[in-house]
Every structure is written in C-alpha cells, then in structure tokens.
What does this fold into?
Amino acid sequence: MKIAFLGLGHMGGPMAVNLTAAGHDVTGYDPDTAARAAAAEAGATPADSAVAAVAEAELVVTMLPSGRHVLDVYDEILPAAPAGTLFVDSSTIDVADARAAHEKAVAAGHRNIDAPVSGGVVGAVAGTLAFMVGGSESDFAAAEPILAVMGRNLVHCGGPGNGQAAKLCNNMILGASMIAVSEAFVLGESLGLTNQALFDVASHASGQCWALTTNCPVPGPVPTSPANNDYRPGFSAALMDKDLTLAANAVRANGIHAALGLAAADIYHAYNADGGGTNDFSAIVEEIRSRSGN
Ligand code: NAD
It folds into this structure.
C-alpha cells in the first residue's frame, strides 16, 4: 500500500520503519532533518514537505505532538491527497480536536479514524502497540491490516473521537493508580513496613494493579520496572502530564465529578514543572516522599 507517514519522532519513526519492513511503500515527512534521514535509512522515501508526502497516498498516518499540529497539517494536506484517502491519526489529542479533524477530512472527500496508541517507544519498535480506534466500522476494517503491522491489540471503540476518549480514560486510571500505589509505599515506609512486604501482600490482594505489579514505583519487587533503572522511561512524567491535562479538560467540559483524576493532573503537572518530566512517571513516588519530608 502507498502510505504517507507524517511525524517521524520517537514513536512515528519506528512505526514507519515497521511499515516499510512489512513491504509497504512508505513516504515520510518530518520537519526535523535527522528524523527524515533516519526513516530514509530504514527504507522509507523522504519527502520535502507534508503536501509532497501525501500526493499519491492511499493511507496517511499522522503521529504528531498535539491537536493543533494535527489540525494545521490536515488544513495543508487534505486538498493535496487523492480523493477517498484514509487518514489515520495516531497522535494523542483532545477528543474535540479529533472530532474536528474527522469533520475536516470528511468535508474534503476523505475517510478518517483516530487511532491513538499505548505501549510507548518499546511497543512502537517491537510492533506491539495497542490501538484504540474511533471511526466507522468500514474505515476501521480498512485500516486494520496496516495497524496490525504496528500493533497487536486493536480495539474499535465506536465513532469518531472514541479512540481518544478511551486513551484519555485509560491514562486517567493509570495516573491516579500510580499515585495511589506510590502514596501507599511512602505511608508503609513511615509505618515500618518494607516495600517487599507491602508488595507481597498488595500484589495478591485487592490493591493489585498494573502500576504495582508491572511498573512498580519502588526498586526491588519488580526487577524490570523503571525504578530499578534510575527511573529512565518507560513512559515519561511529561507525557503523563500531557495526557492528564487532556483528561482534566474533558472532565471539566463534561461536568464530571472526577476529583481523583483532577488531583492526579495537578500532581503530575507540578512534578513536570519542577523538572521531573524526563523521568518515568513512576518517579512520582520520589515527589510524594519529598513532599512528606521523608
Ligand atoms: P516526538 O516529539 O518525538 O515526535 C513528534 C514529531 O512530529 C517530531 O519529530 C516533530 O518534528 C514532528 N512534527 C511536528 N510538526 C510536524 C509536521 N507539520 N509534519 C510532520 N511532522 C511534524 O513525539 P512522540 O513521543 O513520537 O509522540 C508522538 C505522539 O504520540 C504524541 O501525541 C504523544 O502524546 C503520543 N504518544 C507518545 C508515547 C511515547 O511514549 N512517546 C506513547 C503513546 C502516545
């Protein structure tokens, strides 16, 4: 398939490489020349502009920093793509922006799905991302073989914007549960409990969750968690701040009483502003320790 890939950064770069390796004809564009060169080295055809990249595309993937980027790029490229092109936006963006992007694409005679991912750079490289998809059944079906090259768990979540909705809701659970797990470890330490003892109990009891058993915020109990590697991400606290801010905006816009989600957004925002953004998001345990004077 002729695929244009816009946004060849930490995620988009390896995703485009996997599409190339699977035999697709990939044309890549990123304003960053190093990102373009890396994709070209892996077999993609570099384009000089976003408009040039989509000129013959049957499918266009965008993997961009924000909703503003997606909407601006769509304004540029929608008139330049062949009629009926399938636009797949895998960036994490606001639900309202995803729905606006969908409207723009359809008004220009194209098809569109939002298909944000989880699984991070490791999943992007390995081709094991989870895709949460919003759009029509037929557009989901058309994109499925392409998404399956880049990921494993592909879930159709409903109409336009519902992929982003699922992503924001999932990450609101993740952010709040990581803080809850971290608070429990810091409290346990103060009460004289070892981290291993709390882990051994909670990981087999009702406190069990991914933040505890896979991405455990203290070193020791889960040897593969970023806590054992100086909190190198993994999933950075800056990205958790971004996703929780999007979730908090949606909470407020919809009048939802989500006290924990809003508190989690505030806590990660403060941690990011204090310089913690490049750490794995589980390093929030250190922030809680320091705020507790421990
Ligand atoms: P990144 O900053 O590494 O990559 C974004 C790329 O987009 C950059 O290379 C930038 O130069 C490029 N870009 C900007 N404007 C462009 C344009 N007009 N045309 C083409 N390219 C353009 O970010 P990333 O970590 O790859 O994340 C991309 C998206 O994926 C974000 O929305 C992020 O929230 C989401 N995401 C990231 C992760 C992760 O672990 N990094 C995980 C899940 C989701």
User: Anything to note?
Assistant: The mean pLDDT is 97. Residues 6-12, 29-32, 35, 50, 63-65, 69, 73, 91-92, 117-118, 120-121, 235, 239, 242 surround nicotinamide-adenine-dinucleotide (CB under 6 Å).
